Amino acid sequence: MEYTKDLSIVISLYNEEESLHELVKWIEDVMQKEGYTYEIIMVDDGSRDASWKIVKELSEKNECVRGISFRRNYGKSAALYHGFKAAQGRVVVTMDADLQDSPEEIPEMYRMVVEEGYDIVSGWKKQRFDNKLTKNIPSKLYNATARWVTGIKLHDMNCGLKAYRNEVVKNIEVYGEMHRYIPYLAKNAGFDKITEKPVQHQKRKYGVSKFGLERFVNGFLDLISLWFLSRFGKKPMHFFGFTGILMFLAGAVLAIWVIAEKLIQQGQGLLYRPVTEQPLFYLALVAVILGFQLFLAGFICEMVSRNSAERNCYKIREEI
Ligand code: UDP
Ligand code: MG
């Protein structure tokens, strides 16, 4: 495919009025120095300050600046989704608007995608200038979990600064709050040449962080969802049916055991406990019921996935 530009820089922003002039100036300087053809796509995620007004001014001054403005705040994923849809460059770079990411990193990331053939080059804030207790330490834990679940060896999965081959962003759909796991979405779409590059990180110069501690709980839940979808999204019965059968069989065997034991003892004229006085019997009943419920969940999920518009959606590399 022919691309109209070397680079698309996608920036999602929410109430970042103080940073925008400086940010665009900084990017322009780097682009001019390297001689790239480029576009800056600024997605205003429903800001309530003057951000959008500033984006409009910037785009009047420089025709490479484009903008999309949401009516309300939908979140970073929604902003990236629209930015990706609009991107026309050969390489698509995402970065935050708060001046924490440095545009100086772009040329090397661009080179790694174009010359070394990576699908994704993800930034790694090796030396990080955020609050230690609320961000840096939880983030280490979160990244270790993400590495383990996704099998992608990145130190900083959620770094805002990343470079993608254009094809990657056109073949994935960022939704919900899945911007944290774009490398995983890409891997599930068959783009697995993923690497990282240590990047400069600055303290937030203006404004405040838009994400609190809840990011780690939500991030973990999203990770579980993505893991489930990537493994069983197209065959949910394999998950629910399997766990259901195990549960059901365990319950049934236990129940039979408890009843048989009682009958034998009763038959031999020994002292025996009625089954309803044995805790094990109730555990067995619960297991049988849960097993059956899991099975039902499996059937329902199969019906949902059969009706899904994506049931036969595959990523094709090439056709001849
Ligand atoms: N952001 C956004 N929509 C939101 C929240 C944040 O577009 O609902 C943008 C924000 O303006 C910034 C980027 O996402 O450009 C990263 O946000 P932030 O700097 O607050 O995150 P942190 O660096 O604290 O992880
Ligand atoms: Mg930030």
Q: Alpha-carbon distance between the termini?
A: 15 Å
| Number of contiguous helices | 10
CATH class call of the largest domain: Alpha Beta
How many strand segments?
7
Task: Describe the secondary structure blueprint for this structure.
Layout lengths: L4 E9 L6 H15 L3 E7 L6 H11 L3 E5 L6 H11 L2 E8 L9 H9 L5 E5 L7 H19 L11 E4 H5 L11 H7 L5 E5 L15 H19 L3 H32 L11 H28 L14
Parallel strand pairs: 1-2, 1-4, 2-3, 5-7
Antiparallel strand pairs: 4-6, 5-6
Helix pairs in contact: 5-8, 9-10
The structure holds uridine-5'-diphosphate (UDP) and magnesium ion.
Uridine-5'-diphosphate binds next to strand 1 and helix 3.
Question: How would you describe this structure in keywords?
Answer:
7-stranded mixed beta sheet, binds magnesium ion, Spore Coat Polysaccharide Biosynthesis Protein SpsA, Chain A, binds uridine-5'-diphosphate, alpha/beta, 7 strands, 320 residues, 49% helix, elongated
